[in-house]
Amino acid sequence: MRSVNPALNRLLREYPDHSAEDVTAIIEKTWKAGLSWKETSFAFREGLFRNLAALLRADKDRLARLMTEEMGKIIRESLAEIEKCAMACDYYAENAESMLKDEMVSTDASRSFVAFQPLGVILAVMPWNFPFWQVFRFAAPSLMAGNVALLKHASNVPGCALAIEELFTKAGFPENVFSTLMIPSSMVEAVITNQRVQAVTLTGSGAAGGSVASAAAKHIKKAVLELGGSDAFIVLDDADLDNTVKAAVTGRMINQGQSCIAAKRFIVDETVVEEFTLRLLRAVSGLKTGDPMDPATDMGPMARPDLVEDVEKQVQKSLESGATLVYGGKRPQRPGCYYLPTILRNVRKGMAVYHEETFGPVFSIITVKSEEEAIAVANDSEFGLGGCVWTKDPERGEKIARKIETGAMFVNGITKSDPRLPFGGIKKSGYGRELATYGIREFVNIKTIWIG
Ligand code: NAP
User: Fold this and answer.
1) Ligand 1 centre from 423 Cα, in Å?
2) Which residue's C-alpha comes closest to atom 46 of ligand 1?
């Protein structure tokens, strides 16, 4: 596996892959570790997750640098990501026991209840875009519930994958409760097929989700899929444009636009579209593109050359179909995987950026004539992950939020993940939920116990 710095297109390090035999041996060891791990108390697991949170915080500079070097995220976002992982560890350390306590149900039995028991070995296939957060938001609830984990991380972040495994060891977790598999995606199906593996969760593209879900289905195993999104950012005629434009920039530019819940389609009422576009242009043209290690940089490189090419093609095709270029639309004059923040106007049905997920720094502005049209356009997507609506009237916002077909809607706030709230999508954005009580209950046996 190769780790390449996308800011410089420079090879950082090569890591050896695991062979098929190594993988079988790791799965066996993980399964064995699970037999005793599931018998440990919540208090014991809590202690270890508290250690892990402390280690993340103590080592955050090194870990953040590693992330920035491997996939180009700007350093202040990397630091925030490590802090968020520590927060998730603390959150599940504190709450897992109460989330999974027996639920008494009154029936004709002398006592009947629902118990939540671990499933065993869970495989996590994870993406590179939030290389720490995606893993921790799966691992903290799953391990606190008494499961053990196998991580197959994205091939371009092997350094992060190994650093995470090392953190679990340093925090005092028993060996093989959390193991990293250094394998290409072609070996994932064999892992799912292994009889020791009980379930799989994947965060990534629809193509990867489809192949993981069909392998899981073939072997009757539970799967959770967190896939792509093309979130609507709806600007109503009464929106406060100061806040809205600031949020639009943050919501789209986070991680150089490479976030599943980034705002992607800006659906703007015709009465404010001129002013919105003007202010957006002012804000976006002031962003500083540069070295992601520099704390003053707003916009670093994208994670891989092929990701730049994908976005470039989507923008080009949309311009050819009649979209108007307001800003950007090209690579800056510097080496590395950079693409300028780009604003497109007059985006319409039929254009690539209207229908496809744009996984890069592209603002696609779609003008609408009414609230009803805004809702219709927002729902005219094969994805259903998140979205937000901007208005001075929170009740109006809530009414619209209820009508949008997604797993989450925010009123006067950008879509974000929060350990206290469930996260996941509908339609082609996947199924199942992560985070909150819903997330920790995805990988447990919801077991009825009836006592006569
Ligand atoms: P990707 O190619 O699907 O990769 C994600 C993971 O899946 C990687 O570990 C990858 O391994 C693996 N993988 C790829 N093809 C596979 C296959 N056929 N069978 C089994 N595993 C396979 O994803 P990406 O394009 O790099 O990441 C961006 C996508 O992820 C976007 O669509 C984004 O919206 C989505 N995403 C969703 C969420 C969410 O929570 N909903 C969060 C973040 C990202 P290799 O690297 O070895 O190929």
Assistant:
1) 17
2) 154
pLDDT at 328: 98
SS3 of the chain: helix, strand, coil, percent, to 5: 45, 20, 35
User: Please, which pLDDT band fits residue 114 given cuts at 50, 70 and 90?
Assistant: very high
Active-site residue, 260 included: yes
Whether 36 and 163 share a structural domain = yes
Q: Which residues of 244-282 are buried (b: 16+ CB within 10 A; e: fewer)?
A: bbebbbebbbbbbbbbbbbbbbbbbbeebbeebbebbbe
Q: What CATH number should be reported for the domain holding residue 319?
A: 3.40.309.10
State which ligand 1 atom lies nearest to the alpha carbon of 226: 41
Look at the chain and report how many structural domains it folds into. Answer: 2
Mutate which of 182, 185, 226, 359 for ligand 1 pocket (most atoms within 8 A of beta carbon): 185
**Which pTM value belongs to this model?**
0.97
- 129 CB near ligand 1 (under 6 Å): yes
- Residue range 52-98, pLDDT digits in tens: 999 999 999 999 999 999 999 999 999 999 999 999 999 999 999 99
Ligand 1 atom with least separation from CA of 184: 47
